[in-house]
Design goal:
By secondary structure, the chain is an alpha/beta fold. 33% of the residues lie in helices and 20% in strands. Helix 6 runs antiparallel to helix 7 (146-156) and helix 9 (194-202) packs antiparallel against helix 10 (207-229).
Length: 434
């Protein structure tokens, strides 16, 4: 297959929404970028619309049930802080970075989800120190490119303040600029989370979120300038995208409280899960319900039906495993439940079924005021896609597209094949042979 670009730069601004587009058009670097770009400001995301499944969809072109990353975190009832789907081995089938590497291209990824221990030349994976005896730097080093990460930390580690934002994204930016100039990767994946963080803790349309968008504008300009300074700009394709939108919320639903009260979850003296017959695994705006047997499934079905009939419980929809699978979600869950707007799901076991979210809860890190994970059918919930550079037509505006279309399109630009995908190549934006 013909390769259409020398290098593909994919920049993910986590939680970038279609509702942000009018502001992006007025920010200097986004405005300049859009002048030569083709774009879609109505990109339908996947279900559940959380970060790790979304980013795996972006590099595979598949729905979660097919690529295997069906949530951010693993099903680990009883563990206070569940592990995330950090590692490449969780992904079923191939990825864009695998195929690029097989074709002899140089690859780089900075904080791209689900890349721990991936075969990437310059890899700084997104992975957290998730045990009391773990330290962040050794955990990162063990799961990525050791020399590369040591170099980035030596040069730019002083910028970072743990996982706090905007310092983390500032560190990622400097590392990305250096990577562009020093290593000139053919495929670069970079993930920024500043906007997502600000929205979670301050609100979707908060001034903190708007400030994050302004910082992202500067970051985009810095990366483009790095390509120009190093003589790579004319031979590069630059993609700017979001993974999902988000919605403000005011109430937290705790289905495990009900399951515990019904004797379907047993807890120990410390108040942690000791055994379970049914368990609610949160995806924030949606949630999976897993059960151990058919008798329990029947009982849970009745409980969920009663909850959905009472609007005050915040449950908008109950899907069977088959219905969830038809939407691309995990078919192994007995049910998938969707929250009404203004609500989201947590896995807490104590207190009432519904909690009002207070400022004190947010400050303590117990709850957030914005979530994603909701059904793509929610209104005003689409994300964005912008592409400019080698191999891309100028000025094509796609009315709609789907997140699964991105992987096949990227593969076409690099001249590689992702095999059977759930999406299509966006031929409309690909430069035609004259």
């Amino acid at each position: 297959m013909e390769r259409l670009t020398d290098r593909l730069i994919i920049i993910s601004f986590d939680c970038l929404s279609s509702l942000d587009f009018s502001m992006l058009q007025e920010l200097p670097h986004f405005k300049s970028f859009l002048q030569t770009a083709s774009y879609c400001k109505n990109v339908e995301t996947i279900y559940p619309s959380v970060t790790y499944p979304c980013h795996t969809t972006i590099v595979t072109g598949k729905f979660p049930k097919h690529h295997g990353i069906i949530n951010n975190t693993l099903l680990q009832p009883g563990r206070l802080s569940p592990d995330w789907y950090w590692h490449r081995h969780y992904v079923k089938g191939t990825t864009l970075y695998d195929e690029a590497k097989k074709s002899g291209m140089t690859t780089a990824a900075l904080l791209w989800p689900v890349t721990a221990k991936a075969n990437i030349d310059y890899n700084m994976p997104e992975i957290f120190a998730n045990r009391p005896w773990h330290h962040q730097i050794p955990v990162s080093l063990m799961n990525g490119s050791v020399r590369f990460q040591l170099e980035m930390n030596k040069q730019f580690g002083h910028i970072r303040k743990g996982l706090s934002q905007p310092e983390l994204d500032d560190f990622v930016l400097e590392s990305t600029v250096h990577t562009i100039k020093a290593y000139k990767p053919n495929l670069l994946l970079v993930h920024f989370t500043d906007l997502d963080t600000q929205r979670h803790f301050h609100g979707f349309s908060s001034e903190q979120a708007h400030e994050a968008l302004r910082r992202h504008d500067i970051r985009l300009g810095r990366m483009i300038q790095a390509l120009k300074d190093s003589g790579q700009y004319e031979d590069s394709t630059i993609i700017v995208l979001g993974d999902h939108s988000a919605l403000d919320e005011a109430k937290a639903i705790k289905p495990n409280v009900l399951l515990k009260d019904q004797g379907l979850i047993q807890i120990n003296k410390q108040g942690h899960v000791a055994a379970w017959d049914a368990y609610c695994k949160s995806c924030d705006g949606s949630a999976y319900i897993y059960v151990k047997d058919e008798q329990t499934q029947s009982k849970v079905a009745g409980l969920l039906q009663k909850l959905m009939e009472d609007e005050s419980t915040g449950i908008e929809m109950v899907l069977t495993s088959k219905e969830a699978g038809a939407r691309g979600a995990d078919e192994h869950a007995a049910f998938m439940i969707e929250a009404r707007q203004g609500y989201y799901f947590t896995e807490y076991l104590d207190g009432n079924l519904i909690d009002d979210i207070t400022e004190q809860d947010v400050e303590a890190g117990k709850y957030t005021v914005v979530s994603h994970g909701y059904s793509p059918d929610k209104p005003d919930y689409t994300t964005v896609f912008m592409a400019s550079g080698k191999g891309i037509e100028t000025g094509i505006v796609l009315p709609t597209m789907h997140l699964v279309d991105e992987g096949p399109t990227f593969a076409r630009l690099l001249g590689v094949d992702l095999g059977n995908t759930d999406g299509r190549i966006l031929e409309e934006i690909i430069v035609k042979n004259k």
